[in-house]
Structures are given as structure tokens and as C-alpha cells.
Specification:
- The chain has 13 helices and 13 strands.
- Helix 1 crosses helix 6 and helix 4 packs parallel to helix 8.
Length: 385
């Protein structure tokens, strides 16, 4: 056998081995659902919306969960329901963000479904409407233009101080920025993505998986590939800093920058507009304050502060946003539930928040539903309660 034939054989064997490995990786990634499905599309009014009837799988970089997800025909992560009222049944519309959307747990474990069971099953319908990234602007516009057609007896807003204040500010919110007129009236919610063209999913899920790992676990290498022109700069996840502090965390500062005071004013105005719209439609309005992981497990907050030297010179209060929301509720005569004391008291029984993802575990959703149901009964917020 000639030298050239030997080299050619070795090359063919190497190509076969690499091809076989790539095929095995592709099969493994697909079988384990390691690449999340894209469940959202642009919306001219709300900025973003769930895609009706979309079905797939959701996970994240640390794979703390792999969840099967189906969006109903109405564009909500919920069971199918007719818009017409069922005689003798109370109806609750639950508004929120990713905590209500709850892609991290199975559908029957999410807050809306558990709350319905806690409230009596067939006697109460809970319409769950949560979308990742939604703040008060998107929630208010959704209710005003689409949600009120369900004619709920009660609209319950799940308010997450960790980013729901920021979401009201065009100066702070970059992904779904609210758009106001010169008088401060909310017009719509924009979409801050670079391109208006819908993203086409990659044909190879193995490629998408490896690329995601590179972007999230090796940011320095990703930046180097951007400099070489081998990767789009827009794909690299960058933490937005304000005076050396990740911008989201300023909501917990005792003395935040002036832009945050404006964000609070805009948040309170949008909350008031939502309450007014709900009550003008003949429904009741209430609010539940969603817990943050670092309130329940403060050791996580300690690690965050230690990792950002600028944060060590600032005074922080993780419960300050809740007190401000409670003060707004008192001024507006809105029934309001603070979940954090209950979560803090039960934190050692079982994990209530995912360690890396930060959202509620199934146990967190169950505790939130049980506590919320007790609150609704105590305040007599639903017919027959």
C-alpha cells in the first residue's frame, strides 16, 4: 500500500469519526431537549406575546429543569377556556411576568393552576396571563385591549419588584421599553431587539447548544470571537452596569439614582391606570408581591455584593421596594399580599426558588398559591368566598 493511500485512508477514517460524533451529539441534544424552544413573537402593542398553539421544551444553561410547554390557542400558557362566562362560577384574571408564565415547572404546578385548585376547582376559573419580560405597561395594555373581554370578577396582579419597576422606565428598560406621549400617557411597548426580522432557528440543535454554552459559560472567549469577526456582537450577553452596579439591583438601594425615582413614579402611575381600568369595567383589583430569590436566600445576595466592588460602598435594603408597593396599595385602597414573610419562614423546608434560574420551584408555586388563596378568602375578593 502506497504512502498516499495510507494518508487518504486515515483522513477518511478521521472524517467518518468526526461525522459520527456530530450525529451522536445532535441526537443526544434533541433527545434530552437541551435547546429551548422559542415561544415568543413581536407584538405591536405589547412588545412581545406568546405564540398561540406553540409547543416545545424549556430549559436553561444550568439545566435545573426541562419542562414540556404548550401555549393555548389564546396565546396564554394555560388550559383552553371559552371566553363566555360559566353560570355560577367566579372568574379571576392573573396578570404577571415570567413568574406567572412559569416555564420552569409543569403546567399543573404553576401558580394559576394551583390557585384554581386551592379556590375550589370548578367553582372558580383562574385565567393565567404571564409573559417573560412583561412589566406593568404590557400588563395594563393587555388588560385594557384584550383581557377585559373575559369579564373577570377579580384581576390579580403579580408584581415582581426585582424588575417590574425598571420595566416602566424608557431610560432603564432596553428589551421591552414603554413608549409614552409628552404628557406621560402610555401608548405602547416597544421591542428593543436589533432586527425586526424573525429569527430563524438553526437547523442543527447541537450547534445551537454548543453556541449557547460558549456565550454563557465562556464570555471572554465569545468576546475574542467577536473581535475576530467570527461571532455577531449582538449575540454576546452583557451585564448592563450603572455606576459599576448591575442595573436591576438599583431597585434595592436605599438611595438610588434619580432615574429610579422617575421609574417609581411611572410604575405607580401605570398601576393606578390599571386599577382604574379594572374598576371601571366592574371588576375588583388586588395585588400580590412576588418574592425575589435573594430575599428568601440572602446568602445569594452576599455573593452578588462580593462579586461587584462598587456594590460594597452602597447601602442596600431588599425589602424597601415591597414597603413602597405596600404604601401605594394603602393610598389606593388596594388589597395587597406580601409573600416574602411566608417564604422566609418556610425557606428551610424545601427549595422555593431555583438556585441559578431564580424563579419559583414547584414548591414555591404551591406555597404562593396556598398563601394567595387564604388572602383572597380573608379579604372576600371573589364572589362566594
Amino acid at each position: 500500500m502506497s504512502r498516499g493511500t495510507q494518508i487518504l485512508g486515515s483522513l477518511l477514517l478521521a472524517v467518518f469519526g468526526v461525522t459520527l460524533a456530530c450525529v451522536a451529539l445532535e441526537i443526544g441534544v434533541r433527545a434530552l431537549h437541551l435547546v429551548p424552544t422559542r415561544f415568543w413573537q413581536r407584538d405591536a402593542l405589547l412588545g412581545s406575546a406568546l405564540i398561540p398553539n406553540r409547543e416545545g421544551w424549556w430549559t436553561q444553561e444550568d439545566h435545573e429543569f426541562v419542562t414540556h410547554v404548550r401555549i393555548n390557542s389564546d396565546g396564554r400558557r394555560d388550559v383552553e377556556r371559552p371566553a363566555a362566562r360559566v353560570p355560577g362560577t367566579a372568574r379571576l384574571l392573573l396578570l404577571g411576568d415570567s413568574f406567572v408564565e412559569a416555564l420552569q415547572v409543569d403546567r399543573e404546578e404553576m401558580l394559576g393552576r394551583r390557585l384554581e385548585a386551592e379556590l375550589g376547582g370548578k367553582r372558580v376559573e383562574v385565567f393565567s396571563m404571564g409573559v417573560s419580560g412583561y412589566g406593568t405597561p404590557s400588563q395594563y395594555l393587555y388588560y385594557r385591549e384584550r383581557g377585559r373581554r373575559f369579564a373577570p370578577d377579580l384581576v390579580l396582579l403579580a408584581f415582581y419588584p426585582g424588575n417590574d419597576v425598571l420595566n416602566n422606565s424608557p431610560a432603564l428598560e432596553s428589551v421591552l421599553p414603554p413608549v409614552y406621549d409628552q404628557g406621560g400617557r402610555l401608548l405602547r411597548v416597544g421591542n428593543g431587539k436589533d432586527s425586526d426580522k424573525p429569527r430563524r432557528p438553526p437547523r442543527s440543535q447541537a450547534y445551537a447548544f454548543v453556541r449557547k454554552l460558549l456565550l454563557t459559560k465562556q464570555p471572554a472567549l465569545s468576546e475574542w470571537l467577536v473581535k475576530l469577526g467570527w461571532m455577531d456582537a449582538a449575540a454576546v450577553r452583557r451585564v448592563v452596569l450603572q455606576a459599576g452596579v448591575p442595573v436591576d439591583f438599583w431597585v434595592y438601594a436605599v438611595d438610588p439614582p434619580p432615574v429610579w425615582q422617575q421609574a417609581w413614579r411611572q410604575a405607580e402611575r401605570n398601576l393606578s391606570e390599571l386599577r382604574r381600568a379594572v374598576e371601571e369595567a366592574g371588576s375588583r383589583f388586588a395585588l400580590v408581591i412576588v418574592t425575589a430569590r435573594d430575599q428568601v436566600y440572602p446568602e445569594g445576595w452576599e455573593r452578588i455584593v462580593a462579586a461587584h466592588p462598587a456594590m460594597q460602598e452602597i447601602e442596600w435594603d431588599l425589602l424597601a421596594p415591597e414597603r413602597r408597593i405596600l404604601a401605594w396599595c394603602a393610598r389606593e385602597s388596594v388589597a395587597c399580599l406580601q409573600l416574602s414573610p411566608t417564604f422566609a419562614a418556610r425557606r428551610d423546608a424545601q427549595p422555593l426558588h431555583f438556585v441559578h434560574d431564580g424563579h419559583w420551584t414547584a414548591a414555591g408555586h404551591a406555597l404562593a398559591a396556598r398563601t394567595t388563596a387564604e388572602f383572597l378568602r380573608r379579604e372576600k375578593l371573589l364572589p362566594g368566598s
